[in-house]
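Q&A log
Question type: sequence-to-structure
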Amino acid sequence: MDGGVAAEQGTVTCASWIRRPEDAHLVALGKSKHGDLPASFQIFSFDRLTTSLSSSPSVTFEFEDGCDPVSLAVHPSGDDIVCSTTKGGCRLFQLYGQEKNVKLLAKNLKPLEDVGAQRCLAFSPDGSRFATGGVDGHLRIYEWPSMRVIVDESKAHKSFNDMDFSLDSEFLASTSTDGSARIWNTSDGVPVNSLTRNSDEKIELCRFSKDGTKPFLFCTVQKGNKSITVVWDISTWNRIGFKRLLRKPACVMSISLDGKYLAQGSKDGDVCVVAVKKMEVCHWSKRLHLGFSVTSLEFCPSERVILSTSNEWGAMVTKLNVPVDWKEWQIYLVLIGLFLASAVLFYIFFETSDLFWNFPLGRDQPARPKLGSFLPDPQSDDQNMWGPVDM
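Response status: OK
Response body:
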């Protein structure tokens, strides 16, 4: 396998990063029942120096028989984690304790008890809204954490395939297994638009831009035997262009928190990363999950690292071969260095300015007076410094 570090092999159904202070991020894994091992929800620590997960989980929660995790969503604060299951709807896990002594408190989400498997779960970037998309096509949007219902649309889609919130949390994009895509207003639940497509096109995955300057929506579209990435302008919802990136059907897509990179995973285990500014592939991990679909794909909150999973190869973390970003302290250090260099150059220029301006002087043109000629003799008497004066 190319470019990956295996974390937990086998039975991993879903995974997500957990943001923590001082970049001490964690990883949440959902694992289905395997042999005598029960289905479980586990949390691992991440070592950014070695780009690897811990060899054993920091904490484990075991599900009852017949209940397997389906999907995960982590609140931007990193304190709340919602896990959809095949039985009994969704579970809420609250994270507390010190980083080296993490503990979980499991709760049932009453509004989401017995709602069936939810294929898609998502928190809005500001953490104020939570959305679920069911296998049965039912869309629910809630205020978080009050769980006040904003949208409860039982026939939003035939069956959900993907969903994503816009950066300002105003819109929710959702796609269906039948190839359609809809845009929802998250404040009042009113459908805003249905993305246009040709009769031979199926819209499959969707992600909003996250850099704060480009109001775009990226969607993977299957057009016959061709797989393309299409871009919509969300200010007009007009289709503005497309490009072939992965060059094979994508089954999962993710975008970095700063919006600079877009990642896609294929049905045969390849992962490609695209620089959004140029829409060019800048990293390939071929055969990362050899022969199996990539089921989860997510960028690390602070490092150029991606987390990916498959049913056969488990969870893997991969360091990207992309240009290193400047850290904030490095920028300040460069600015201070430039300031000090400017001060030194100014001092040298001032001290050697006579040599620098050493043009030929005219016969009657006085030379530049020395600084000392303006200062009194320290040994002279202040009263007689001007000499005798005739009155």
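Response note: Helices lie at 328-351, 353-356.
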